[in-house]
What we know:
By secondary structure, the chain is mainly alpha-helical. It has 7 helices and no strands. The chain is globular, with a radius of gyration of 14 Å.
Amino acid sequence: MGTNMTIIMRSIDQLGNLFSDFLSSIAPSLYEIVDFHCKKQVGMSFAEASLKNPKLTYEFLVKFFDSEIAVDVLDFLLSNYLKKYNIQAYGILKNFKNGDNTKLIEVAELYSKVIQNGGGKNRN
């Protein structure tokens, strides 16, 4: 596997972990449900779609939650979730609308480091 492919796979894993932890904090099986429907409708896992085609991922979320306002609320909840790990990030999902996932990739990397260093223990 080439270096670029390794980086992409690591990013997909980091995104998957972040989304799994975040969405599961809202409802226990929410990530699995979103991921299943994303694979069905977009042809990729939710994490992979977020990395490879954020605009399509945003459109999927709007359709899945049946509202752009619901995606805004999800974005707000994601920002609050990340604050528990001392990660300041706003408008991550909103940026998807313009095809920009740069902030998400940076946040997923930070989140992964925090979790690896034990920062995720006993957080509610």
